[in-house]
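Intended use. Records like the one below are meant for learning the mapping from a protein sequence to its folded structure. Do not use them to infer anything beyond what is encoded.
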Amino acid sequence: MDSIDKERLDVLAGVRARGSMPKAAVRRADLSSLVSLPKASATQVAAGGTVTADAYNALLADFTALRQAIDQIAAKVKP
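Structure written out for the chain above:
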């Protein structure tokens, strides 16, 4: 491994200077919280129709789960 390869590896690992952190690699395990989310059920609401409380609560639960997964990834990636 030459010095250029070592530098590339350091950048991917995120161990280089602070400026290289945006180029650091994300491990697949870091994305597991997104992958493990259940598929959202598609509920159709007619144009001009009203949304039921159950549909709204289901959407809110999906959004909350997605937001938590994104927050977990952000915490792992944040320098």
